[in-house]
Amino acid sequence: MAAAESDREVPSALCSEFLNFSAKDTAARWLQVSDLPREVYQHLACYVPQIYCQGPNLNPQSEELLTQLLLQSPLEWYLCGEEPSTGLAKLEQINQPSQLCGHVFKVGEPTYSCRECAADPTCVLCMQCFLGSVHKEHRYRMTTSGGGGFCDCGDTEAWKEGPYCQKHEPNISDSSQEDPLAHLTPDMIARTYNVFSIVLKYAVDMLTWEKEDELPQGLEPPERADTYYCMLFNDEVHTYEQVIYTLQKAVNCTQKEAVSFATTVDRDGRKSVRYGDFQFCEQAKSIIVRNTSRQSKPLRVQVMHSSVVAHQCFALKALGWMGHVIRHSDALRRVLCQVGLQRGPEGEGSLVDTLMLCDSKMWKGARNVYHQLLMSSLLMDLKYKKLFAIQFAKNYERLQSDYVRDDHDREYSVTDLSVQMFTVPSLARMLITEENLMTTIIRTFVDHLRHRDLQGRFQFERYTAQQAFKFRRVQSLIGDLKYVLISRPTEWSDKLREKFLEGLDAFLELLKCMQGMDPVVRQVGQHIEMEPEWEAAFTLQMKLTHIISMIQEWCSSDERVLIEAYKKCLTILTHCHSGFTDGEQPITLSMCGHSVDTIRYCVSQEKVSIHLPVSRLLAGLHVLLSKSEVAYRFPEQLPLSELSPPMLIEHPLRCLVLCAQVHAGMWRRNGFSLVNQIYYYHNVKCRVEMFDKDLIMLQAGASMMDANHFLMIMLSRFELFHIFSSIDGRKRYSRENANKDVVQQNNTLIEEMLHLIIMVVGERFVAGIGQVHVCEEIKREIIHQLCIRPMAHSELVKALPENENKETGMERVIDSVASFKKPGVTGRGLYELRPACAKQFNLYFHHYSRADQSKAEEAQRKLKRQQGEDTALPPPVLPQFCALFGSLVKLLQCDVLLSILHTVLQWSLEPSGGHWSESMLQRVLHLIGMALMEEHQQLENSEEEATFSFTLKISRPGEAPSNSASILALLETLQNAPHLEVHKDTIRWILKTVASIKTMRERTATTPVADHGGQSQEETVRDKDKAERKRKAEMARLRREKIMAQMSEMQRHFINENKELFQQTSLDELEASASTSVEHSPTSADAALVCVGPRRTRVCERKQVVTCILCQEEQEIRPEGRAMVLAAFVQRSTVMSKNRQRLPPDPEKYDPIFMHPDLSIGTHTGSCGHIMHSHCWQRYFEAVQAKEQRRQQRLRVHTSYDVENGEFLCPLCECLSNTVIPLLPLKKTSSSCDPPTLGPWLKTIGQQVRSLHSAHRKAKATSAECLDSEPDCPAPQGFRLDHTPPSPYSDSIKEMLTTFGTATYKVGLKVHPNEQDPRVAILCWGSCAYTIQSIERLLVDEEKPLFGSLPCRQDDCLSSLVRFGSACWTAGCLSTVQTHFIRLLAALVPDPQVNGSPCILDVDMFHLLVSLVLSHSSVHCLDDSGVTVDVGQLHFLHLVTMAHVVQILLTSVPVEMTMEQESGGAEREEEEAVCRLYNSLRTHLGSALCEVSSGWHLWRCVKAGILPYLRATAIFFHHLNGVTPPPELHVFGPGQWEALCGYLSLPCNLLQLFYSHQDLMEPLLQGWCSHPAVKQCLQGSATLVSFPRESNQLIELPEDYSALINQASSFTCPRSGVDKSRAPTLCLVCGAMLCSQSYCCQTELDGEKEEVGACTAHTFSCGAGVGIFLRVRESQVLFLAGKTKGCFYAPPYLDDYGETDQGLRRGNPLHLCRERYRKIQKLWRQHSITEEIGHAQEANQTLVGIDWQHL
Ligand SMILES: [Zn+2]
Ligand SMILES: [Zn+2]
Ligand SMILES: [Zn+2]
Ligand SMILES: [Zn+2]
Ligand SMILES: [Zn+2]
Ligand SMILES: [Zn+2]
Ligand SMILES: [Zn+2]
User: Fold this and answer.
1) In which band, very low, low, confident or very high, does the pLDDT at 789 lie, cut at 50, 70 and 90?
2) What is the predicted pLDDT for the residue at 1263?
3) Which residue among 165, 719, 990, 1450 is buried most deeply as judged by most CB within 10 Å?
4) Using CA atoms, how far apart are residues 1141 and 809, in angstroms rounded to an integer?
């Protein structure tokens, strides 16, 4: 027996019972009984198993119906005491609708948040509320919901402004305080209470029921059936594939059924996979368990009695029913809340408690249903939301522990509801004070991380997989903590202070466990064996980053809290480092007459840790003391005297030294884990609470210490003390000379140390450190990012730290520092730095990486050069320090620093040797500059005397060696040192500043005298010098740039240049240039140019010479010469299709000779225009093939092209190609003798055809030996039936003719290549016609002229295609092509010997014309009568044109003329003629054609309808016969009719064609109209194609992207019917929404075994294998071609910053960019999608590996 049985009928016993059942009576009985619960249980016990116990596949609709009638209805009757619909309606009338929207989000639904007004980012609105809110006009964020959660509209705490949308705006009479129960009668309340308590109790009992074979008391069924279910439960361990495979084995079902089971299990959490007796189910269970227990714990399976399952099913229904009922009335909702939260009689937990505590034991479906009920009841009632929150908090620890042990995603856990309560500020505050929530959360978290080292620190290194898993889950607690802290209190109560500080204690305990964790020791000698685990610790740090920041913010909002917090933090820190001097020897350092005590400690030898959260929190609080001025107002309350600055700076300094040493390459042997840690330490995600705070701690410490002492300790920790403390710094050389590596290392360390000093003194942009406003910090960050280069909005966002609300604060300041440049059709919008802000550039900005720094330096120098300034980048003017940090400036002029500066300058005197570095000198100059700026500023600002006297100090001679040159003197020397050319500008700037400070000092000392006169001499000399230098520099720069340009030009792929070259010169030009003859045909100059017919303008014969791109040899194109070919790509196309419903034809049987006017599928040929010798190409292709074979054997890599399918890349431009077209010369033409007119000529042709018929018959008959009865038809005069025309072409050309023909045939029909197939030629003509038609459309759509606007490659391709078409008969069987011709002609001129000709409404006339003209050669070659091909071409043109006119008249939809419009007689003649024709058509067709009296209207229709055909025809004959088109056709615009008709040798009044051949046309017209299909078409069902055919467009897209998201969110998978689609994808061609990338919608294609995804399947029906989609959730365009090719493309939606948001990560509102959408449409219309994919895949190899067919 299979698992899935056929649907069962509803048992008839139940039916009769159901007929007799009365819900009203049952309810009435219940009103009488004393023990209502017992009665109701009995009722359920009786009916529930009868309804739900009926095997696997009871019809769900009847199940629903029975539940409603037998179970819910009596409950409703009882509850209402009357007809439920009446009762509920009454309740609804007195209902006070909640002012909360509470809309619960579906997966993928758009949600909106306001960046300006939302209390936190979890506050969201549904689309409806959003559109009715004020936030629509604000800066909002749009995301898609992951499901669950609800709309916060109406929650006043969620929004700083505009909490209500228009719909949820409360009435003026605010009734929210009123008790909703006041409107209900006590009776009603009592009944509701009874029902809800019984039903909820029942549901809770059943959902938490754990026995498989028994029921709770009172529910035992009257008669117990012996049936069981084998129930399979979901887990997050086993994959879809594993489950599907196992099920197929265990319950013997098909793949499809297994997929369906697995889908349900995944969605609902459980699914019965078998129904039957116990044994039967048990057997399945054991197989499943056995099959899934190998690598992991087995899938959970239970064999459950059917009545248990039945009651559980109904329990879910009952919960849903209650949720439904309370929607009618806030009063009923209130009662349900009461019932749910009521404690038991003995004080035991409430029903809601029971549910929550069993949450992790329930299956997904059950959880979902009761979570939904909680959301629509308790969370919608403000009073009970609070009570529920308290219960939730009380159970918090237990719930979280259950969750951590469970394996379901958090969205299926009740703990996920925390966001609904904790983010409400008043609730959060209440929970902190009443339930001590903050402490609870932190303690619970810490409890779960038990693994510690000896010092009690976390130890993640030894984590097992299990523990790591647990660690991941427990992180959600940090999220809860964030919710609780996210809004800062505006008022503090004592209780809140107490509880917050208690929480802080717990938090500090947590940080203490992190302080010093994951210590590292430098590896010497040997490389580290195993990379240590570091990610867990950093994950923790990252997760806590915002919490730490928020705690600081909380502290800053209350002075008392801040003081207490500071004390607590300091205590903990002291505790952490109580033994920091233990075992470390104290030493004394002396230098420059100063000495300090410290310890002996080397970072390079001892343990050091990057994790110092306690120190960093203290640093943060320290800044707050300064910012809030608490430090000055309550110094007595602060433990400032307990602070030990050396202790404070010790660990942060070690950490910074570690970074420097890693940088210097000293820690190479410690592997990548350390490198990664250092990276994250500085990274924007972590640095705020890591690197930044360490720097602040150094600043805090240094500000409390003697500057010399601080620097000496720093030198010592950098392990550089010995270098700078020795009497003569130069000794360094002799000591270190031995080891170059050590010199190098120390150089880097010195650089790093100097940089650190620069930062300690210079980083003053944090409010509290410097006297700056908060927004200065962010401004400065942006300025320094933009100093590197202009950046897009998203790049800037990424480079800036985000706060807990995911805001950078950038919007407030960006416009003051940058200007926005909009993007073009590609690229994105960019912000550029305002020039005025460049002054603030600091080369040693602390957040620059080395790479950033050098890029910024280069960019800024370049900018200065462009502005003709010198290239010095002096330090910017800095803000003043706050008082607490004020003493930091002393660092700049302390003795130790001066000594360091002096030493480095002295080293730099010597050009040779690696004993100093450019960057070292640059930093020293920068420091000197900073000091000068400081002095300058003090002088400028000082009311009192300036204490800063740097200029004085640097003028003094040095101390060591005694009386060495002063710093100033050294600088003056260096100024002229040739080896310091690059620093000259900086040194010059320094000297200038020194001079100006001196003047300032003199001015303040003496009376200020303006004495610029003395300087002017010097100035002019200097200026001259400067000008000279600038000129030289400029010349050097120009030279350099020229060389660079040349270099890059050479580097650029030479293809590009050649591409240009090849595009510039087309074949035509080559032909023109090659033609040496001056003989102008007199006609072409004066007479009108005509491209077809005997009056055709003669084209002089020219020599065509082309160059092979492979061997570079020149070659003339001659019929008997070596073949030259164009790389080409043939593809099927539906771009012009007017009927996407038409099924693709069966390729084996399909007869393609006539194209239907709906053009539903065609074959397009394109080319990149690159020409090769056929033999060169063949060699190339064989090489590609061989290479591919080797590659596939070696490694299974794919390429962007499919060699087995004949694909290759053009060797020059790498354009995807799959065949080549041979180039052919123009046909030689001979002038015609007196040409026959249409009538006689058709007669001759008729004779020729008839003779061919009999000849063909004979040819067949000779083999079949049966002589026919038909009379022999003699050939007309000059028609040589026995003649076999010789092929004019060389062998190599013939071979290429076959190659291209076969390729077109293969692709066009999707069949295996067969050069013998009679359809080869037809496909080639078809492709020629289709390609011309598509190009004609493209030119119209692009508003380009018919001639002269195509790129040369397309012109070349068309010429080759047309000439190939006219030659391809020579490669095939002559009689086959003749047969085609006969059949084609018979469609217009009746031929009794041809059957099954289509009616003219079923033929695309342009295809017919092309095929007729091209196939005629096969007949004409036998004609020796002297009538030229030209005659035939003209007559075919006339004939087909007339047929087309008739076709248009028959299909043009008659328009009711409201106003008789008559033209002023200009086209009177035409109008009358067309009326006459139309009326004669009506005589043939009668009522099938309606009456139209307006000749004006008909003539309009004809003219408009036929224009595309005439244009395509002109292109065709132009390329076939090579006649230059008249100049009128080289411009775009109206009034081309005459030029076109003239060029085509047609009368402007097309109707003349009919009347000049009247006696010939009458019978033809009658013949066309009498075809039975014509009447059918006209009256029939099929929609007629009318002319002109409109160009197809991609579908209209909405302006606002969220409309699409909304559309997609309500889209359900078409296969499964109910499921939301995970990857809804929109076909941009036809607008179909598809369920992509999902098992449910995979299908088989073409009977092949492998299943493909919905998109791939759709491309085959909609786009002949090519598809353009929009993946709605990802905001990404997807191109697909075939089963293996695809790429992603930028969507046509941009945000206000001119950027796309692929993946919808940023959430900025997106709007349609029409230009970009047009660009995509153009790619599609040009048939370039496949080419685009090819280029994308070549550029990005990872795209090749994607399984596109599964999308
Ligand atoms: Zn809403
Ligand atoms: Zn609303
Ligand atoms: Zn807003
Ligand atoms: Zn060649
Ligand atoms: Zn090419
Ligand atoms: Zn689906
Ligand atoms: Zn489609």
Assistant:
1) very high
2) 55
3) 990
4) 53
Nearest ligand, CA of residue 116? 3
Q: Which ligand is nearest to the CA of 151?
A: 1
Ligand 3 center from residue 1380 Cα (angstroms): 72
Q: Which residues lie at CB < 5 A from ion ligand 3? A: 114, 116-117, 135, 138
Integer CA distances (angstroms), 1103 to 1074, 1075, 1157, 1223, in order: 6, 6, 39, 13
Give residue-wise pLDDT tens across range 1384-1415: 999 888 888 888 888 888 899 999 999 999 99
Q: Is the distance from CB of 1210 to CB of 1168 less than 8 angstroms?
A: yes
Distance 1312 CA to ligand 7 centre (A): 27
Residue 761 three-state SS: helix
- Specify whether the CB–CB gap between 99 and 170 falls below 8 A: yes
Which candidate, 1655, 1654, 1661, 1681, places its Cα nearest to that of 1735? 1681
For residue range 398-414, what is the model confidence (pLDDT) as tens digits? 999 999 888 888 888 99
Of residues 1194 and 1682, more confidently modeled: 1682
Nearest-ligand number for the alpha carbon of 119: 3
DSSP 1549: S
Position of tokens 């007949």?
1419
pLDDT tens profile 1202-1234: 888 889 999 888 889 999 999 988 876 666 567
Query: How far is the centre of ligand 2, averaged over its atoms, from the C-alpha of 1360 (Å)?
Result: 65
Task: Give per-residue pLDDT as tens, 328-357.
Answer: 888 899 999 999 999 888 888 899 999 999
Distance 104 CA to ligand 1 centre (A): 8
| Terminal-residue alpha carbon distance, the chain | 35
Gap between the Cα atoms of 1164 and 1725, Å rounded: 11
Q: Is the pLDDT of residue 1235 over 70?
A: yes
Q: What is the full DSSP assignment across 1246-1297?
A: HHHHHHHHHHHHHHHHHHHT---SSPP-PPPTTB-TT--PPP-S-HHHHHHH
Is the pLDDT at 428 greater than 90? The verdict is yes
- Measure 426 CA to ligand 2 centroid, in angstroms: 21
- Which of the ligands is closest to the CA of residue 1055? 5
Cα 1706 to ligand 6 centre (Å): 28
Question: Taking ligand 5, which is a single-atom ion, which protein residues have CB atoms under 5 Å away?
Answer: 1168, 1170, 1210, 1212-1213, 1215
Residue carrying the six token digits 């086209």: 1467
CB within 8 A of 1498, min separation 6: which ones?
A: 1449, 1452, 1471, 1474, 1475, 1478, 1492
Contact 78, 31 (CB under 8 A): yes
Q: How far apart are CA 790 and CA 827, in angstroms?
A: 13
Q: Rounded to the nearest whole angstrom, what is the distance from the C-alpha of residue 152 to the centroid of ligand 3?
A: 13
Mean pLDDT of 1091-1120: 83
Burial 164-187 (b: 16+ CB within 10 A, else e): bbeebebeeeeeeeeebbebbeee
Q: How far apart are CA 149 and CA 152, in angstroms?
A: 9
Question: What percent of the residues of the chain are helix, what percent strand, and what percent coil, each to the nearest 5?
Answer: 55, 10, 35
CA of 101 to the centre of ligand 2 (A): 5
| 1173 CA to centre of ligand 4 in angstroms | 4
Cα(1630) to centroid of ligand 2, in Å? 35
Query: Span 1616-1632, mean pLDDT?
Result: 84
CB 324 within 8 A of CB 196: no
**Is the pLDDT confidence value at 1016 over 50?**
no
Residue whose pair of structure tokens reads 């209500």 in the numeric block = 164
Mean pLDDT of 380-406: 92
Distance 1630 CA to ligand 6 centre (A): 19
Other beta carbons within 10 angstroms of residue 489's beta carbon come to: 18
DSSP letter for each residue of 327-364: TT-HHHHHHHHHHHHPPPTTSPPPHHHHHHHHGGGS-H
